[in-house]
Amino acid sequence: MMSQRTHDDLRVQLQRLDGRGYKAYKALRGVYAFPDFTLILDHIQGDPFAAPTAVRVIVPRDVAGFPEALWAHPSRRVGAEHFLAEQFGGWARRLSRPRGTGHSGQIRMAPVGQQMLLRTAVRLSAQGVEARFTVGLPAAGRRILAREAIALLLEDVPRVVRQSLRYAALDTEALWTYARVAEDADALREQLTARGLVAFLADGSLLPRRSGVDDRPLLEGVRLQSPPSLRVTLRAPHAGEIPGLGIPEGVTLIVGGGFHGKSTLLRALAYGVYNHKPGDGRERVVSHPDTVVIRAEDGRYIAGVDISAFIGTLPGGRTTTFFSTENASGSTSQAANIMEALEAGARVLLIDEDTAATNFMIRDRRMQALIHKDKEPITPFIDRVRQLYTERGVSTVLVIGGSGDYLDVADTVILMDEYRPYDVTARAREVAAQFPTGRLPEAEGPIPQPRRVPDPKSLNPYKGRKLVVKPLGRRELQWGLQRIDLSAVGPLVEVGQLRALGLALVYARQRYMDGQRSWAEILAQVMEDIAREGLEVLGVRAYPEGDLSAFTPWLLSAALNRLRTLRIVPPEQLTTGPRESASA
Fold first, then answer.
1. Are residues 228 and 363 in the same domain?
2. For residue 464, what are the CA distances in angstroms to 420, 460, 506?
3. Rounded Cα–Cα distance for residues 92 and 38 (Å)
4. For residue 255, what are the CA distances in angstroms to 105, 360, 434?
5. Within this chain, do residues 430 and 536 fall inside the same structural domain, yes or no?
6. Which of 80, 196, 350, 557 could be bridged to 344 by S-S, CB 3.0 to 4.6 A?
């Protein structure tokens, strides 16, 4: 239990440490009362080049002044917290400056992007507002610079706090805009299923991005205008009635010439599982929360997946009902991605033919005549896509530019022409009737219901006795001795999601993996715990985590499935009986 001291005590203690070795900073760990907030030094770095010092500030409700209507509603609270994180991060960047060696003088909060996610960096509540961030304690070499540390902790940090975490100091109109935009987006998303839609894109939305690595809007891009036949009107609590493009359930094709916006539309649907900040252009673009991007992923690891619906018996009599490989092909990886998505509860699949395996997507009549089905183990996706919807209720949206055979299985066809959508469903049916392909359907039997049971012994997040969960850039995660490559998985939008995914795997392993529970059961339980208790339930540090961001079930499933030590318990080894939490 850390004892509480005052800000004056902190000043005096820093003066006494001047010139001493850097590790003497450890004595600062504790709680300090400032006139208008509390400063908590949770973890002190041991070296100026080490991970910076973990800090929290708590501004009490009567000082913070945020109205209950802002933080009591969950959607508004997430939008408001995003705004506060932006404000805190902006002030921290302004006031951070080099104050010695290494990280000396830095004030940093986990960065936020265009998406408004539940995070642990800033939390609004009935108690006030809490912010979690890091500072670099100043040093010359490895000697403490007390004067610089006093300026950092007793001048710069308080100024950041007072400018960004008090209602009276903020642009409250902008703050409320963030809160209302988040609430409206959640309300729109909640209406999709009742309206028979998988996604909605409001008229006037700006979908193009500045580049593949810059998620900000392309301001000169064409704004969306829905075709009358696909226009629907949804209602938001603040924006009122909103007309826009409704993507129906079933099988939808997005067609058009190259560079006319097909992939841009599909990308917007992929990112529609998240809410977007004001000014992003996609504030009123929402997708079903269980929407998953599917692509081929050559070389990926696969463990115990039943891909027999798409890949039959392989040469040599190798079965695919319990398929594993260290180095998947394009077709086997795409088949596994679909089955893993179904296991994780996917309701909508998004596929762009540019990132799909051609032989997995289609086998035309000429190829059917040349290569008899007895010699082709692949059942192409075209022959399962309708079955996914009619039997499993799973819709698919496909970008198709080169395979007109898909016109035969489509419910809706949207043409993108210079970034403007047109409903060409009737014309597509005329074309399909005028030019019959003559291809023969190749699907046989139902699509199996995935049920895989992970072997807890195959998951080890430790290096020796040290738990290691560390993001490596934006797309890779160090997990124990293993690296989990998520470069082909999307949409992954923040580093904070990477660390949260790693901790969620640790949590799942320690709490629920017992060699009998299925991954679907474990996944549902983990997501339920997070929904009930917050991301903090994943924490493993001795102090509150400040660098975690919310993620989708699909991302967590993708992280597990790309862990190259993962083993699945063979079905014949499963037993029935009471299920108990696995030990750590």
1. yes
2. 56, 10, 15
3. 18
4. 53, 19, 18
5. no
6. 557
In the structure encoding, which two tokens stand for residue 223, read together? 């704004």
Q: Give me the number of domains the chain comprises.
A: 3
pLDDT tens string 197-248: 999 999 999 999 999 889 999 999 999 999 999 999 999 999 999 999 999 9
Q: Single out the residue of 135, 159, 138 nearest to residue 149, CA to CA.
A: 138
Look at residue 77 and give its three-state secondary structure. helix
Question: CATH number for the domain including 368?
Answer: 3.40.50.300
Same domain, 161 and 303: no
The owner of tokens 């508004």 is: 76
Query: 128: which strand partners?
Result: 60, 125
Identify the pLDDT of residue 579. Answer: 45
The residue to which tokens 């029935």 are assigned: 576
Query: Do 166 and 119 lie in a common domain?
Result: yes
Angle between helices 74-95 and 157-164 (to 10 degrees): 140
CB 447 within 8 A of CB 387: yes
pTM over 0.90: yes
234 and 334 fall within a common domain: yes
Q: Enumerate residue ranges in the chain where pLDDT < 50.
A: 577-584
Count of CB atoms situated within 10 Å of the CB of 242: 18
Task: Write the DSSP assignment of 457-497 as a string of letters.
Answer: GG---EETTEE-EEEETTTEEEETTEEEE-TT------HHH
For residue range 139-181, list pLDDT tens digits in order.
999 999 999 999 999 999 999 999 999 999 999 999 999 999 9
Domain final residue pick, 392, 423, 448: 448
Are 275 and 135 contained in the same domain?
Answer: no
- Can you tell me the distance from the alpha carbon of 224 to that of 567, in angstroms, rounded to the nearest whole number? 46
Nearest to 248 by CA among 291, 193, 289, 292: 193
Strand partners, 124: 129
Q: How far is CA 565 from the centre of its chain?
A: 23
